Amino acid sequence: MQPIVTRRLLACSLAGLLAIGAGLAAADWPCFHGPNRDLISNETGWTHEWPGGKPNEVWRVSVGIGFSSVSVAGGRVYTMGNVDDTDIVWCLDAKSGETLWTHKYPCKEGSYPGPRMTPTVDGDLVFTLGRDGQLYGLNARSGKPVWYVDIAKEYGVKQSKFKWGLACSPLVLGDLLILDTGRTLALLKKTGKLAWASGRDNAGFSSPTAIQIGGKTFINCFNAYGLVLVNAADGKELGRMEWETEYEINSASPIPSGDKLFISSGYGKGCALVQVGPKGLSPVYQNREMRNHCNSSVLYKDFLYGFDGQQGSTGRLACLEFATGQVKWAQRGMKVGSLMIADGKIIAMLDGGDLLIAEASPDAYKELARAKVLGGQCWTYPVLCGGRIYCRSNEGAELVCLDAGGK
């Protein structure tokens, strides 16, 4: 089958390809890992100096079980959950938490129940993926389906052999919607029709990022096999590097910088910096100083910040030099969680429900604030957007919106 590719897509720069949606406010966080897929917000004016030592709660709602984080765009919050074997896509008013619409479909749950992906908002469309391959393009204002594809049936997408469900949060690149589901898929975002498909690996649990090499844009995939790079224009594979992890769990998204990629996995596997060249992939270093189990590290000013250890256990929050893999500091005895960075500060959600603020500096670990805001299993990324911090609990099925004092 000939790939469907537009000249406009081929002519786009990487910066243009990564522009998600039109007319998004500066504070919007329209997709998994944010507008640049790097877990970094340019938002300033928020504070960690909370009255009484805890941020004020603006609203709290039950959204069902699951590991979906939030996307925030146009004053609306989008997330997913599961209630009574039914997946629910939620659209909430960012100010009040009021439900504006829901979209539901049957989805029976197995181990680690609930949706894994975070909705991707692009203009008047929002894209969601169920654990069994239910891919929807929904109208962002009404929640009504614009198109639907069962990617497991239509395109032969295969879950991990452990059947823990698909977890990819789609990436918008120009006219295309990209999914890393073992088989990399590029769909026309307005219709859901296939542009190209590449590979036949089992799905991992990672979400795609992009990198530009030699004037071409490539999709970085981290599936059950390992790291695979494919051309964004036609799906042709540039190279692959095997990265075998116990239980086929490669969950953290590849982190691009220049012509290099950082990858990391849990279960004692470790991390690697990979050189990307015209002829493929080659490791620069590999060590066990950063073992990201479920959630990615963040690359900020040439240093990596992330949780080294298994989710559901204790580990360490660590800072590594990106270029060398050298540990700059490591704070041990911490519940393993997830994090983002804004205005030079780490915003982390620890398993068990503690919200943590610390300096994003390679000099030393410096904790600025900590408060218990939720309970139970908290494996989901916190999101700062519009002066508010959104945190999610799986077991409690709760989404809480906290006042961070921003404007």
What does this structure look like?
With 407 residues, the protein is mainly beta. It has one domain (7-403): Methylamine Dehydrogenase, Chain H (7 Propeller), CATH 2.130.10.10. The protein has 3 helices and 33 strands. Strands 1-27-28-29-30 form a 5-stranded mixed sheet, with no helix packed on it. It has a 4-stranded antiparallel sheet with strand order 2-33-32-31, with no helix packed on it. A hairpin with a 2-residue loop joins strand 11 and strand 12 (176-181). The radius of gyration is 19 Å and the shape is globular. The N and C termini lie far apart (51 Å).
Can you give keywords for this protein?
407 residues; globular; Methylamine Dehydrogenase, Chain H; mainly beta; 3% helix; 3 helices; five-stranded mixed sheet; four-stranded antiparallel sheet
**What share of the residues does DSSP label as strand, in percent?**
over 45%
Question: Do you know the CATH topology?
Answer: Methylamine Dehydrogenase, Chain H
Low-confidence stretches: 1-25
Rg, please?
A: 19 Å
The major beta sheet can be summarized as:
5 strands, mixed
Mean pLDDT, to the nearest integer, reads: 92
Layout of helices and strands:
Layout: H1 7-11, H2 14-17, E1 40-41, E2 57-62, E3 71-73, E4 76-83, E5 86-93, E6 99-106, E7 120-122, E8 125-129, E9 134-139, E10 145-150, H3 151-155, E11 171-173, E12 176-181, E13 183-188, E14 194-198, E15 209-213, E16 216-222, E17 226-231, E18 237-242, E19 255-257, E20 260-265, E21 270-277, E22 280-287, E23 298-300, E24 303-308, E25 314-321, E26 327-335, E27 337-342, E28 345-350, E29 354-359, E30 367-372, E31 383-385, E32 388-393, E33 398-403
